[in-house]
Amino acid sequence: MGKHSTTVARRAVLGLALAASLAALAPARAADLLADAKARGTLRIAMEGTYPPFNFKDPKTGQLSGYDVDVARLVAAKLGLKPEFVTTEWAAILAGLAAGKYDVIVSQVGITPRREQAFDFSRPYTYSFPQLIVRKNDRASYTSLNDLKGKKVGVGQGSVFEQQAKAVPGIEVKSYPAAPENLQDLAFGRIDAALNDSLMVAYLLKHSQLPIKAGARVGAPERMGIPFRKGNPQFKAALDKVLVDAAADGSLKALSLKWFGTDASRPAQ
Predict the structure, then answer these.
(1) For the whole model, what pTM was predicted?
(2) In the chain, how long is the greatest CA-to-CA distance?
(3) Judging by beta carbons within 10 Å of its beta carbon (0-12, 13-18, 19+), is residue 198 exposed, middle or buried?
């Protein structure tokens, strides 16, 4: 081997050694969430826990119950994982996901362009509409959010409904950390209307003792999905397959009928 070829060989060895050193110094890329969850054996699932009929604590048992809870259990079981539930206020729930405090949120998270910039989403598993809730004795007819200019409207803090109400100039928007306080203020006349999910409204009318009633649907259908941190393509594929299969075999429809009396697992015709 000549001098030139020896020098080239040494440089090649040095180059490989340098590359190896840099690789060792660089932080290792985290495993896909699917592999990480399977290594743990659990899927860490966040939800609000105060949002009937989607997710709430059953007053009789103290256990989490609702449509989202059933969907979350189904997803975890199909992925071969044990569900590990975390409840947190809605206003902080997306920040907690970004910080890695849990793996997913199953809590009626609307799929919006802004949220899709920060997180990946599963395919939608619920479709519903924004709907007004008003007092039973209110004779005013609010057919759109524009009719509520000059009025006080209660919404969930950090919700898509808050964004929709704030987008209409003239509405005084009051934000609440949870639904019960919002609806109590409505019943006591502290606000003029509440804006929430049409599926929740139907449930409330059936179970609430408050003097409230359903108002008009105001706006386009909402698509709800399961958000998780970006960069987990294997997890996304597995999660979407679970939801596709659950839609095909009627599992999602059955859960929807159980909680809402209607099939909210597909777009309204």
Answers:
(1) 0.79
(2) 99
(3) buried
